[in-house]
C-alpha cells in the first residue's frame, strides 16, 4: 500500500465515530441500516395572523338591516335608562323632607359669654387677661364681658369718667392688646359701662339718668372706635326710660364699614317676671337681655314656666345663675355635683349661657363683698417626693374634672344645632326637678333632665301633642353626673329616676 493510501485510511478512521457517540438524529444510521434513536420532528409552517375586516368590509356589514336594528335598539335602551335615572332622582328630591332654614345667628348666640368684673382678682389686671386668653379660648368662649373698668366714686355722678380706665385695673394700651389678641382667636370683647357700679343705684338718682346717659353714649362711641365689640349696661328698665336711650342704641348697633361684625348691646335686669323680660326684649331694641330668673325662680315648675314664656326669643336671651349679680355659680350651687348640674342646664337652655370667671372650675364665691381670687395652674402635679396635702390635692383634682365637664358641654353646644338654636318643648317639672326637649329639623335631639333636690325623683316625661314629633321609647346617655348612668348606655324614657343633685343629657336620632 502506498503512502497516499495509508493517509487516506487514517482520515477515514479519524472521521468515523463509535455508534454510541453518534448524535441521535435521523441523518445517521447505525449498523444494519437502522436509525439509532431517531425522532422525527415536524416543524409547523408559519400561521397567518387574523387582521380583521377592512374598512370597506366593515362599512358594508354595518349597513345591513340586522346591525342597523341592533344599533337603534341599544340607543333607545340607553336613553330610556338615562331618563329613568333622571326621573328617579327627581322623585327622591321631591319626596325628601325639606331642610328647615337656619335662623340668623350672631356671635353671642354661638357660644358662652364669660364675665370678668374684677380683673385684679382674675389675673392682676388687664395685662394679665391678655396672658390668659389661651386658657379662655380652650373653653370655646365666644365673648368676654369686661368690667366695669372706668373711674368714678360711689353715688357721685360728677366724678364719673367712663372714658378713663381705673389704674388699678390697667391701662388703655393693655385693653387694646387684649382686643387684638382676642379677635385673632375669634373672641369678641364687651365693655360693661354701668355708671354707678360702686354705688347703691346703677344710674345714680332718678334725676341723673338723662345726663348720665349722655356720658354713656359718648363713652360707647369712644370704646367702639377702639374696636370693642359691644356695650353692657345694668338696670335696663331704668336705662331705657332715658330720652336718649335710642341714641345709645343707634351708636352701638350701627356697624362701621371698617368692621362689619355686628356689635352687641346687652342689658341686665333683676327682680322682674318672665313676661316683663319678654316685653323688654320686644320694646327696647337690645340684642341680649340677661336676667336673674334662674336665681329667683328656684322651683322646677317656675323655671319651666319661665322657659315656656321666653324660648321663642332665645336669640335675645341670656341665662345665668348669679351672672346678673357678678356672682359665681358656687354661691347657689354649693356642691361640685350641683355645679355640674347647673352647667349642663345653662348650656342646654334656649338662650345664651353667661358665666362669671371661675365657674368653669367651680371656684368658691368669696365671703363678704370681695371677689374670689382666680386659681390657675390646676394641671400642675405635686412635686414627686414632697409632702402632699390630701385635701388640697382632692380639690385640685375636682377642679380639673369640673373644667373638663364644662369644656365638653361648651363643645357639644357649639356643634349641635338642636342645642345651639333648636326648638324647645317642656317635658316635666316638679318642686326640685325639670326636663325639656331640644329639637332642630333632622339633627340629633336632646333631652335635659335635672334634679337639684335632696331626694330622688321619678320623671314622667310627657310631650304635648306636636305634629311630626314624638318621644321614642329609649334614648342614649350623652352626658351624666350619675356614675350609674354610663355614657352611651340606653335607658327607657318611661322610667327615668334621678338621684339627688344629679343631671343627665339624653340623645336620640331623627327618624323621619
Note down, in words, how this protein is organized.
- This protein has 512 residues and is α/β, with parallel strands linked by helices.
- The protein is built from 15 helices and 18 strands.
- Helices cover 36% and strands 18% of the residues.
- Helix 7 runs parallel beside helix 9.
- The protein is globular, with a radius of gyration of 42 Å.
- The relative contact order is 0.08.
- About 1% of the residues have low confidence.
Q: How would you summarize what this structure contains?
A:
This protein has 512 residues and is an alpha/beta fold. Helices cover 36% and strands 18% of the residues.
Write the layout of secondary structure elements.
Blueprint: H1 3-15, H2 55-62, H3 65-95, E1 113-116, H4 119-123, H5 126-137, E2 143-146, E3 150-153, E4 156-165, H6 172-184, E5 188-192, H7 209-225, E6 230-233, H8 236-239, H9 245-253, E7 264-268, H10 274-284, E8 288-290, H11 293-296, H12 300-310, E9 317-319, H13 336-348, E10 352-356, H14 390-415, H15 417-421, E11 423-429, E12 433-439, E13 445-451, E14 457-459, E15 474-480, E16 490-492, E17 496-498, E18 502-508
Parallel strand pairs: 1-2, 1-10, 2-5, 5-6, 6-7, 7-8, 8-9, 9-10
Antiparallel strand pairs: 3-4, 11-12, 12-13, 13-18, 14-17, 15-16, 15-18
Helix pairs in contact: 5-6, 7-9, 10-12, 13-14
